[in-house]
Structures are given as C-alpha cells and as structure tokens.
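To whoever picks this up:

The parser on our side crashed when reading a file containing two proteins. I've narrowed it down to the boundary between the first structure block and the second sequence. Both blocks are reproduced below exactly, byte for byte. First block:
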Amino acid sequence: MKSILPICILLLIISCTPDSSTELKIREYEGSVCGNCPKVRISIPEAEDNTKLGKSVNRAVREEIIELLDFAENKTVADIPGAIEAFTMGFRNLQNEFPEELTGWEASVTGTKSYEDPSLLTLQMETYIFTGGAHGYGAMRYLNFDKKTGAELSGTELLNDPEAFSEFAEKAFRKTYDIPEEAPINSTGFMFAENRFALPENIGLSAEGIVLHYNPYEVASYADGALILKIPMEQGLPFLNKPDY
C-alpha cells in the first residue's frame, strides 16, 4: 500500500491543478488542384500566441512538414506553402523525365494535441507520403514540449532515467508481443539492432500514458506495420521528468 500512495498523491495533484491548456487552432493547407499536381492535404495545430512555447510549437510543426515534403532539401524553403511547392516541383521534374511511368504523388499530415498537463505538451503528427513504388509510407511522430521553457523535448528527455525506463519497457514489450523472458529479443522475428531492445525514436504522451511508437521498418518489416506499446500513466509517471510536482 505504501508504494501506491506516492503515485496516488501525484495523480491527485495533477487532477486538482487549475486548467492551463495551450490555445491551439487547426490550420488547413492544400496543394494546387490540377492535372499534373500531386495531392497534398495538411491539417495541423498552430499556436496563436507569441510566447516561447507558441513559437517553439509552430517552428517544430513547420520543420516536420518541410522535412517530409522537401526532397531536394532546398535551403530556401522556410514555410509550409514553400514546402508544398517544393513537393510539387519535385513531382513535375520527375514527370518531365519519365512521363509514361510516373504515378501520382500524394502527401498528407494530420496533427492533433495528444496530451497536456501544467508542465508538458505533446502533439501527435500522423503523416503519409506516396512518391511511387509498391506502396506509400505512413508514420507517426510525437512532438513534446516543456511548457515552462518552451523547449522541444526528445522522447528520452521526457524521462528522468532513460536506462531504467528502457529496462521496464522491455519487460512490457516482451509481454505484449509474446517474447519469452530469457529468449533473444529478436527470437520471434523482430529486427532490433545487435539483437538488443531499444526505445523507439518516437516517445510521446497521451491520456493513456507513455506511448512508445515504432514506425514501420524501425524494428520489424513493413507488413508488420507500426508497433505500439502503451505504458499506463500510473506505471510510467515515476519515470517522467515532472519539475512542477
């Protein structure tokens, strides 16, 4: 009972903290509609205030979209409309080179607020891109922010002890995906580097807890799709950096 009490107190403090939600509006972008234009649809949260947090949110979202759409890595692309234009020009250039072989390109981004408390904010970015081939590629990206400083946080920066959390997460991963405790982590077909469990590139927060999201190809084949492990908040809370509590 004693081990449960501190967690209960923390959860009580969170639930009793006055609302301090970040004001975000959804902004829509679309590419041009024409016979030789790729399909581009973007729906993202945008901060309206000019605070450190607001600037950081908008910059991080913008950079994610530029990275997704600007294949030429054009250093002059500075905003989302510019990224859409770069994607369109990439399609047209390839169309001119291979007019009979090129299929239509497509890109979409949908961003939502995944989690917020008085100290942390997490946005969830769902992306899909198709530039030819057998299939497109869908992925999930979590953007985490320290609300007090406005700093963007990597997944491991959310954690007060990444190594201890990794050990905890491995046990949960093995249980979820039926990997015997004493067997190598890749014994059932996964593809972790050096046959050692590793946290994913994407770690975020949701109302359900800490989300570990392995995108396709990260540790398994494309056919396996995304691998998602959710650590309930009551279990994951002791691993989180919570400077305000």
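<<boundary where parser fails>>
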Amino acid sequence: MKKMRGKCTIVSYILLAILCEFTECYSVKKYSLLMPNVRPNREEMYLCTPVKVDPSQNYYIVGFEPNATMATAHHILLYGCGKPGSSKDVWDCSNMEHHTNKNDKAMVPCAEDAQILYAWARDAPTLILPTGVGFKVGGDSSIKYLVLQVHYAHIDQFKDGRTDDSGVFLHYTLRPLNKLAGILLLGTSGAIPPRSTTYMETACTIRENKTIYPIAYRTHTHSLGKVVSGYLIKPDFTWIELGKRDPLTPQMFYPIHNKVSVRQNDQIAARCTMQSTRDSWTYIGVTKADEMCNFYLMYYVENDEPLSMKYCFTFGPPKYYWKDAGLFNIPDIEASSL
C-alpha cells in the first residue's frame, strides 16, 4: 500500500509539472508594494508599510521593479520579516531616538526575523534575478511579512499637500524553484576623523555547512564614500574580488566580478574607503550628515535553505581593522582604488 501511494504521488507530481508547463504556474506576475500616498512631515524620515504574505503557499520573487526617483526617495529597502515592527498600516521606522512625544517613538521595520531582500537608491533600474533563482516567501518560509521602508531625506516637495507612492513592483512566480536567493549584508559602525582617509572594514567566517553562489553585489555609503569593495577570502588567505564600485554611482545590484562558490570556513570581507574634508567627526547613522558603509552580497543556494547568517557587522574604526583581525595578504591598494 505504501509503495502504491508513493507511485501515485510521483505520477501526481509529473501531471502537475505537465499542467504547470501550460498554465500560470510558470508565469511571472506582478505585485505592487507601494507607500499608500503618504505625506512625510519631517526631513530624514523613514516610513514603513507592511503586507502579510499568504501562508497557504510559497511564492518566489524573481524581480524587483522600482517605482521611485531619487528626487523623492533617498533610498528604499525591502525587508522580509517573521513579524512586522508595528500593526499600523504606516509607521515611523527610523529606529532613531527622534520622537515628537513620549508615546511616539520610532519603531524598527521588523519585530522578528529581519532580513533584507532588496535595496534601491540613486535611480537604480529594474533588477531581474538569473533564471531559476528566487526569494522564497510565505508558505513554509520564515518570511511571513514583507515590509517596505522608504527614506525621505527631503520633504520640500510635500509642503504643498502632495503625497507619495514610492515603492517596488515585485515580480513573482508560484513555480517551485530549487535555487533560493539570500542576501548577506556587510557593514560597520565606527567614526571618520575630520580631514582624513579612513578604512571602514568588516569580515565574517561562514560557519554553516552550506555552499553559496554569489550572483550580484551592491554598495552603499552616503557622501564620503569613494570606493566600496568586497572579497571572498579562502582559508589560505587567497583574496578573490567579488565586487568593487564607486558608491555614488547608481546603487543597484551589479553582476559579481568573479564566479566563485563560497563554502564553510571561507570568509566574506568588505571595505569602504571614506574621504572626509569636513572639520568635524562623522559617525555611522541614518541621516545625510552621517555615514554608512554597506556591501550587499546576493547569492543563491541549490536544493538548500539560504544562510541563517543575514548580517556581518563590526565595530569599525578605530576599534576594528582587517590588519588587526588576523587577516593576511590584504590587497590594500586594490581594495581602495577603482
């Protein structure tokens, strides 16, 4: 009886595959995740809006089509969450101490299981993932909600009563994919001294018994960033460039520079070369007067789940540098020049 049931299951899967080949199972659809005509009332405001993903089936996001311009939005992040940071339709998710009264503190995008699925800035174009690769959400995924975050650095365009619907059109399919996408975000804390060139560096070891295949990278700083570079470091301290970019060019995901696989005990590292002509210190923070050092690594795993490690952050300067972290053969010149 068990054997017969197994054969029936196999036949059912074959029939389903045949049916899907000629139906919408293989089609790509669009979902609009946009700000619901918001009107930001404060410069440097971050607003979030959520959508609950249908828990009855898996969805695979295979593309991201931005609906935004840098004249309105400083940047956009799309988070996958186990639980959103608020039950409101829209909330202030600046994660800053700024608040108008004691009961109006800013909240984070995700209350549980936060991970970044997509990032946009500086008029970056549409991103379509390689064939067969997708971010799994809903169903049996840990991603139960999608949260759109938009950073409004300036609000002059809203003073006459205009509203905003910046966001992203998600391209998705119901077709099961065996190459599941993930993002590892590398970044630092730290400070940049006045009138200096400063390296903000980070590195993390892959501890999980998985093989990941990098496919794209994205760099992000504010105005002081000159070069952001990312590397794969093998156990013998061979450095392989994953990506390098002037972060003030369109902040889209670019194809990886070297096609490599990353395995357990390899390290992923990033450096932001910052040049300050300011007379004061600059700190990591969310406003345009602050700085950020981010290197996003997009990858996929085959017939496996993405890394449970989503972030790789260090204290940054003056507490953390590659040279003090036991790394050798550091490509100093290459990592800071284009």
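After patching the parser it read the second block fine. The two ends are 65 Å apart (CA to CA). The chain has two domains: 27-177, 184-335.
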